[in-house]
Amino acid sequence: MAKISAAVLGVLFVVAVAMGVRSMVSGQVRTEKLPAPGVDEPASGLVQRHSETAVFAGGCFWGVQTTFQRIKGVEKTWAGYSGGAKETANYGAVSSETTGHAESVKVVFDPSKISYGTLLRVFFSVVHDPTQLNRQGPDVGTSYRSVIFFTTPEQEKIARAYIAQLDAAHAFPKKIVTEVVPLKAFYDAEDYHQDYAEKNPNNPYIQVCDIPKVHALQAQFPELFQEHGKK
C-alpha cells in the first residue's frame, strides 16, 4: 500500500511476472484449495435468516475486499478498521501501528446461499497466508495481522474448529497464527479505500498483490466465483 515505495513495487512486479503473477497469493503459492470445514452452520433454519455479517482481517483490505466481492452469496462488503478505538479509526492513525486496529473487511452474506464455513475456507485458501505473523506479504505491522472477528458464538465455534482442523492436518508448513476474537466494533474506512482494487486495477500493488487472489479464487472455487457486481 502507501507504505511501499514505487521502487519496491517495481521490483515486486518484475518478480511477479517472472513467477507468473497468477500463482502469487500474498506471498504464498497454493495449487489446491483447503478441505471443507468439518464444523459449519447447520443447513436447517438458514432460509429464515436473510443475511449474516462476518468480519475478516488478512492484510491490506484492498485485496481482501476485492476477493470477497466475487463470491456468490456475498451481498455487500466494506473496507474498514476493527480492534481499536473509534478515535483512531482512520488510515493515518492506523498506519502508525499503535492503534490496535487491523485493516478489516465486513462481509454481509446470504447464509442460504453460502455458509460461514465456506467463507472461512476461501479466507484461508486464497485471501491471505494465515501463518504470517503481523504482516502479509510486503505489508508489515499489526494492522496487517490475520484476524477473524466473530459476530456470534456459532461463528467462533466454527472458526476455532476449522483452525484446529487445518493445523491437525498440517495444511500449512507452519502453524496458523490467525486470531479469533469477538467483534467489538467495525469502522468504515475512508471513501477512497472502498472498492479500491476495482477503481485502480492498473495500480502496481493491485497487480502484484491482489489480482492473483482473484485468479486463485476463480481457479480453486469456480462454483463460487462470480464477476464483480453480479448477484
CATH topology: Peptide Methionine Sulfoxide Reductase, Chain A
The CATH level-2 architecture is identified as 2-Layer Sandwich
**CATH H-level superfamily:** Peptide methionine sulphoxide reductase MsrA
Give the C-alpha Rg. 16 Å
Strands side by side in the biggest sheet: 7-6-1-3-2-8
Q: Kindly provide the name of the CATH class.
A: Alpha Beta
**Unreliable runs, pLDDT <50, ≥5 residues?**
5-11, 13-27
Question: Fraction of residues in helices?
Answer: 25-40%
Instruction: Report, as a whole number of angstroms, the end-to-end distance.
Output: 29 Å
What shape does the CA trace take?
A: globular
The class by helix and strand makeup works out as alpha+beta
The major β-sheet equals: 6 strands, mixed
Proportion in β-strands: 15-25%
Tell how many strands the DSSP assignment holds: 8
**Mean residue pLDDT:** 88
**Total domain count:** 1
